[in-house]
Each structure stands twice: as structure tokens, then as C-alpha cells.
Amino acid sequence: MILPNEITPELAYLCGVFAGDGSIGYRENKKEYCIKCVGNPKDEQEYYNELIANLIKKLFNLEIKPKFHDKKTTYGVSIYSKSLVKYLTEFIGLPLGKKYSKLGIPKIFLKDKRLINNFISGVADTDFHLAIKRGYYPVIKGVSKSKVFIEEIKKFLENDGFKVCTYERKQFDDRVNKEIITYHIELSGYKQFLKWMNDIGFKHPKNQDKIDRLI
User: Fold this and answer.
1) pLDDT value, residue 174
2) What CA dihedral angle connects 198, 200, 205 and 210, to 10 degrees?
3) Sheet-wide strand order for 178-188
4) Which pTM value belongs to this model?
5) Low-confidence ranges of the chain (pLDDT < 70)
6) Residue 35 φ then ψ, to 5°
7) Distance spanning both ends of the chain, measured CA to CA
8) What pLDDT was estimated at residue 213?
9) What are phi and psi of 89, to 5 degrees?
């Protein structure tokens, strides 16, 4: 395994993916360090097989084979490595353990707009989706359990000239048998979509058909 010395846009993107769909943890009882990053097996297998696995190989020289997790309800990658966990949490600044109270754009990326854009692109490929209303009106929507994280992304996007809407939503979650609050972000309209594709973009193949219809 190799730990990168250079902070590249590709590294920032992958860290965005980890911030969105990933968890980084240490289990004391097993003395086990793990990075786990998974998505919906219905439309994410190609993404993990072709993009994420290749990025991990390129950045860390690790051969990772994506697979089903959580009784085949999710699909993605898991990496058991103390040195990589410490690199991502102590050097990059991603949260260790329960992430939502600590989630944010890592400070190491804030010095370079390209790095922030690529980090947000990684978050968007996991926690955002592209909708087309009325057959032609694009809306980019994102969601997180962290209000602070959504507001931080909103602030950066607005400073970069985007028009952004945020709101919170309460709903009952059958999986945990209680009401949860999620925080949402939206960018609407064709001009916003074009600026997004020019500045940030989507890499996830699930969005490509919609993008092709709009461009």
C-alpha cells in the first residue's frame, strides 16, 4: 500500500465519496480498523467496480474487489488498514466513528478551489441525485443527516455563484422505528445545471442518461 504525499483532485473526490457513503471506524474489541463504503446494489455496482476500485488502486496501490455487504442489501468496498484509517482521519481530516456530528469539508482541501469542487463532486455522486422535472427542467438534490455539512456546502456553492436552496425534513423511518430529521440542498434550472457540470460535475454512471438528455 502507498499513502499519497500529494493532495490531488482525485484524492479529494474519493474523500468526498467516503464522506457521503463511507464510514471509517475502529472496533476496540477486535482491534480492527476499517474503511467501508457502500451504496445501493441496484444502480451502484458499475460505479464501484469501475470507478471506485480503480481510484483506490491508483491512489493507494490496493487491489480491492467490490462485493455485496449487509446481507446483500448494499454493494461496495471494505478496507482493513490501520495506516489508511489514520491517514484519512489524522492527515486528511475525515471523521472517525459516528460521522454526522463531525462531518465537514476537510481543512486540507480548503486552500484550493479545485480540491473543494472535487470533494463536493464525490459527495454528490453518493448523496445527491439529478432529477428532470416536466421532461426538461433539471434539479440537483442532495441530502445529509448533518445540517452543518449541508450548510457548509451551501456556503461554498453560493460564494462560487450558485443559487442554492436548503431545508430540513422530518419523516418516520421504519428501519429505526423513529422520526428522523434530514437536511436537503437543491439547485434548480438549466443555468445552474450547466454551471454545476462545468465546475463540479457528476462521475456516477447512473446520471449519464439524464445528462445526455440535457446537454
Assistant:
1) 76
2) -50
3) 128-133, 137-144, 178-188, 165-173
4) 0.94
5) 175
6) -110, 120
7) 40
8) 87
9) -95, -45
The predicted pLDDT at position 108 comes to 97
- What pLDDT, on a 0 to 100 scale, did the predictor assign at position 30? 83
pLDDT attached to residue 36: 97
Domains, in order of start, for the chain: 9-102 (3.10.28.10), 113-214 (3.10.28.10)
- Exposure b/e, 43-69, CB count within 10 A at least 16 = b: ebbebbbebbbebbeebbeeebebbeb
Q: Which set of grid coordinates corresponds to residue 212?
A: 445526455
Q: What is the gyration radius of the CA atoms in the chain, in angstroms?
A: 17
Q: Which amino acid is at 101?
A: S
In this prediction, residue 155 carries a pLDDT of 97
Predicted pLDDT at 215: 81
